[in-house]
Each structure stands twice: as C-alpha cells, then as structure tokens.
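Practice problem 4.
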C-alpha cells in the first residue's frame, strides 16, 4: 500500500464526519441569514452559501 492509498483510506474513514461538518457550517450561515432576512428562501440561501464555501475552498487550495 502506497502513502497515497493510506491517505485515501484514512480520508474515506472520515468522509461522513466531513460531510456532517460542512452541513453544520451551512446551517450556521443559513441561521445568520435568517436573522437578517426574516422571509428567507432556504433553498436560495443554501445555494448562495454553498457557492461561497466552494470559493473559499478554491482559495485555500490555491494558496
């Protein structure tokens, strides 16, 4: 088993935790949106937040 295989195996073991953490992050920011915008469109808010998370991840990856 190569180093990459070991890292992929370890990452796969934590995949559900990563997904849960990202979902919690989206919930956190949707709640903030909800405080600022009382009649929020949750689907639109989720899409906007996900787009910002993707941009943030791209920025981090490109650093």
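Answer key:
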């Amino acid at each position: 088993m190569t180093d990459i295989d070991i890292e992929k195996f370890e990452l796969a073991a934590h995949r559900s935790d990563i997904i849960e953490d990202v979902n919690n992050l989206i919930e956190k920011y949707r709640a903030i949106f909800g405080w600022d915008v009382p009649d929020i469109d949750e689907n639109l808010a989720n899409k906007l937040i996900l787009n910002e998370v993707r941009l943030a991840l791209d920025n981090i990856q490109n650093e």
